[in-house]
Structure formats: C-alpha cells, structure tokens
Amino acid sequence: MSGDSDQQQPGTGVGASGGEAMPSRRMVLVLGAAAASTVVTVRPALAQTAASVLTCEIPVPGPHAGGNYIAPDGSLVAPGTPGAYAPLGRAISGEEAKMLLNRGATPPGMAPDAAQAYANYIRRLQAGMSGFTCYASLQARR
Fold it and tell me: pTM value?
C-alpha cells in the first residue's frame, strides 16, 4: 500500500483507516436486488388483500341473532316490533357494506330505510360477532 491511509482495502468495504464503513459495490447490488424482490412480492399481496375485503361477507343479522329483527338504530329486537326490519335473508358483501357505510348508497334490492337499519347494525358489530372481521377490514381501508 502507498502511504495514503484513506484507500479502500479490496473486498472489505472499509477504509484502511478503519473509520468510515463504505459498502462495496457487490453489497450495494445485493441489497438493491433484495429490495426489488420485496416490492415485487408485496404489491400482489396488497392487491389480493384489497380484493378480498370487497368479497368478504357480513350476515345481517348474524347467527347469534336467533331470528330477531333489526331496529332502525341497528339493535336486535323481537319479531313484530313496530318499525323493525326483517333479517335480510342473505349476507351483505364487503362491497355493499362499503357502499352503505361510506356513501350512504342503498345497494340494489334493499329498501332505503331497511338499508340504513342494516348499516347501523353493521356499525354495532363487535369482536367475536359474525361479520366483524369483514367490517374491521373495511374500516382499515378508508
């Protein structure tokens, strides 16, 4: 070596003085390749997650309801309660729930008043209730 103490030693990435660590060209290329593969891997996963959120389902009311109807505020009430709506008879898709909750739009085949009661029911879902995971994932995507 010459008398210059700042020269880089071949293959180590560290200056001869031992002060500053500089990555070697090979290390930079390896890190760049790893970062690129991570981006390629994560993007499809995020796209798949977004698609699955819209296809998840929320039963209205859930199996725990035992034949109860839904009051306008979203609570469960006994069948025949004035102003209450019958169970929907099918699950609401994530896309329909998003439409109800975010835009207040009524999905096709639902009466507007009943749709509002169903939206209020969905807002009352709690952990452990059927459809809660779907509802929570819709909230996270806002």
Answer: 0.60
List the one residue out of 136, 137, 95, 99 whose CA is nearest residue 116: 99
Q: What is the largest CA-CA distance in the chain?
A: 96
- Interior angle at CA 64, CA 136 and CA 118, nearest 5: 55
Could you report the per-residue pLDDT of 1-47, keeping only the tens digit for each?
445 445 555 555 555 555 567 778 887 777 776 666 555 444 454 44
Q: Which two tokens stand for residue 116?
A: 């509002």
Contact 53/138 with Cβ under 8 angstroms? yes
- Which residue carries 């896309």 as its tokens? 95
How many Cα atoms within 13 Å fall on the side-chain side of residue 61? 24
Q: How far apart are CA 119 and CA 113, in angstroms?
A: 10
Q: Rounded to whole angstroms, how far apart are CA atoms 114 and 20?
A: 69
Distance of alpha carbon 132 from alpha carbon 122, whole angstroms: 8
Residue 45: per-residue pLDDT = 46
